Amino acid sequence: LRNTLSAKAYRDRLAYFDRVTGLPNRRMFIDRLDWACRHAKRFGDRGAVLLLDLDRFRQINEAFGPNAGDTLLHEVGERLAACVRETDAMARLGRMGSIPSLSHLGGDEFSLLLTQIDCDENAVAVSTRLLDCLRSKPFKVGNSEISLSASIGVSVFPENGKDVDSLLKNAGVALRHAKEERRGQFAFFSRELNARALQRLNIENELRRAIENNEFRLHLQPKFHTSGRAFAGAEALARWQHPDRGLLGPMDFIPVAESSGLIVSFGEKILTSACTQFVEWTSRGLYQGRISVNVSALQIRDPGFVDSVARILAQTRMPPGSLCLEVTESVILQRTSETSKVLQQLHELGLWLSIDDFGAGFTSLGHLKGLPFDELKIDKSLIDSIEKEPRSRAIVSAVIALAHHLGHRVVAEGVETAGQHAILLESGSDECQGYFFGKPVAAPEFEARWLPANGLEKKSAA
Ligand code: C2E
Ligand code: MG
Ligand code: MG
Question: Which of 198, 240, 296, 415 is disulfide-compatible with 248, CB 3.0–4.6 A?
Answer without folding.
Answer: 240
